Automatic annotation (TrEMBL):
InterPro entries assigned: SAM-dependent_MTases_sf
Pfam families to which the protein is assigned, alphabetical: Methyltransf_18
Origin species: Rhodopirellula europaea 6C
Protein name: Protein containing DUF633
Transmembrane parts of this sequence: none
Residues spanning the signal sequence: none
């Protein structure tokens, strides 16, 4: 069984079901691990380039899985899968994939965006998916894993909890509502480091300036000191 890195171990721990699809599976290691541990019954890997398709096919050859060549959810049928993962892509690419065939999305989605993570949280907020958990690897190589479950049109309760804690929804979208509610020490350290970095940079863009101001508000609010 292939060994998973820290981020994929976090992803694998959240997945249980019958049929799971992994988009951009690369070498098929996540599906191989899930099948070997009997966390899923069948896997579907989706690759959009021939070489990754060959890599995943070799890994999954003797397992109850298939590898499809195509773009995102284009090669997944409606009601075909119980859960879905997309790991190692930028947030905007993930949002594009999720938005193109909303009728084909399953109940559970586990995502590991490399950047623009706020856009993924915003997509879920706007499309009836609750953010049920957030986890991360270490500070130096921090990868965030987001777990979503379809809930219909009702508001995500985690943002209501955030409001009761005296924090803005925008802070939750930017830095993770569950991380903030848990007063995550790794997040606190990362915010302090990012604040120093941004303060030292001349001529910040409007986006970076807004991010810096949000970090300042969080660090001066006393939120991380309250227990």
């Amino acid at each position: 069984m292939p060994r998973l890195d820290a981020r994929l171990k976090l992803v694998a721990a959240e997945i249980r079901g019958k049929i799971h699809a992994d988009i951009g599976s690369d070498h098929g290691h996540l599906l191989a691990a899930l099948l070997s541990a009997s966390r899923i019954e069948r896997g579907i890997a989706v690759e959009n380039k021939p070489q990754p398709h060959q890599n995943s096919s070799a890994t999954l050859e003797r397992l109850n899985a298939e590898v499809r060549l195509g773009d995102g959810m284009d090669v997944i049928e409606e009601n075909e899968i119980d859960s879905l993962s997309i790991c190692g892509m930028g947030g905007q690419s993930i949002v594009r994939i999720l938005s193109e065939h909303p009728n084909r999305l399953p109940q559970q989605i586990v995502l590991q965006p490399n950047k623009a993570i706020d856009s993924v949280r915003q997509w879920a907020r706007d499309n009836g998916y609750w953010l049920t958990d957030e986890k991360c690897t270490g500070i130096k190589r921090r990868f965030e894993v987001l777990v979503f479950r379809r809930s219909g049109s009702s508001p995500d309760p985690v943002y209501q909890k955030l409001d009761r804690a005296g924090l803005d929804e925008s802070m939750g979208l930017m830095f993770g509502p569950w991380f903030l509610l848990r007063k995550d020490e790794q997040l606190l350290q990362r915010l302090a480091e990012e604040q120093r970095y941004l303060q030292a940079r001349p001529n910040l863009t409007e986006t970076s300036q807004a991010r810096l101001e949000t970090i300042r508000q969080l660090l001066t609010s006393g939120h991380f000191l309250r227990r």
